[in-house]
Amino acid sequence: MPTFAELALPDDLIAALAKQGITEPTPIQIAALPVLSAGKDAYLHAETGTGKTLAYLLPLFARVEPARLTTQIVIVAPTHELAIQIQRQCTDLAQHSGRSIRVLLLIGGTSIDRQLEKLKKKPHVVVGSPGRIHDLLDMGKLKAGDVRAVVIDEADRLLEGDNLTAIRAIMKASPKRRQQVFASATEEPKCTEVIAKMAPGLVMLQAGSAPVNEDIEHLHLVCEERDKPEMLRKLLFALRPERAMVFAHRIETAEQIAAKLAYHRIPAADLYAALDKLERKRAMDDFRSGEVPVLIASDVAARGLDIAGVTHVFNLDVPTLSKAYLHRVGRTGRAGAKGMAVTLVTEAEVKLVHRYEKELGISVPRVRLREGQVVRLARGRPDPQNGAE
Questions:
Q1: pLDDT for 105-147, tens place per residue?
Q2: Does one domain contain both 170 and 303?
Q3: Where is the domain boundary, 144, 178, 207?
Q4: Does residue 132 sit in the same domain as residue 235?
Q5: In sequence order, what are the residues at sequence separation of 6 or more whose Cβ sits closer than 8 angstroms to the Cβ of residue 382?
């Protein structure tokens, strides 16, 4: 396996990675660095947690000219949380490498006047949501004449509907010679068709291990819908996760979970209840730091987030598609660590668990709670009492 030095990454960026504890490139980084360093358009397709963000940031950063007071890279993300994460990684690279590269976050829900003031400082890299970037381009405040690369992260989410309209406008505003980079963990046929039209000669880069991370243990527990919040509380007590993500796609479920955990004095950060950027950032920071061990989120809010140390994932509102399940559970078991995913289902939802097993080639055994312990049931054996005693 080649090293970062053998991939021709500059020494200062290699040193910056070492300060973050990163010493060896991942498969997608090995595939991407030579292609992107050569300025070619590319589509990076790899599973979650494989280092896609650095796979495109490293070669693009290496080509930024700090002496040029112009915006040279535009990175678009579908959610504020992902944009903040990417911006943080950009800032870390700049600071740890000693490069005078200015990075600006451009997302909605924040003061556009402050962003306009910061744009006057000529950031080299802008990271943000498609709507806000499009608006600032329309206003003539974000200058794209010297943009060398446009990155569309989580492309399968951004290349549809209103987002696609904004992405096309961003591409049109940038020079024709600019590089186009797309990245995603899942591959959608419609998305692939759009990308093929935008960048006909792009290079498809695919890397990663097996479709499903073998370091994740998958379990399911059957209970009534109304009992899911209480069952989650009992599971948290039984499993004692260091850091857990709880997925719900209905705000009613999220509210019930938050209320239940608060009543039992279990610290939790709730992205559903975070109404503005500062509250959402505070929730994420508290979870990342370990101050609170539980994060309640939707698929949209958690899209693309790379949070170190997530030991458990709990699904309360069950995803109907196997790829959605795969995306959720990919939050745990990263970087060689072990993880556990527990899905709470009603009897009617058990068929979805069988779908995951068949389509993903995994085993998701049934468990129940007995005297505060998680007990695995033998395959095919009926459970005399659903959930817990």
A1: 999 888 899 999 999 999 999 999 999 999 999 999 999 999 9
A2: no
A3: 207
A4: no
A5: none
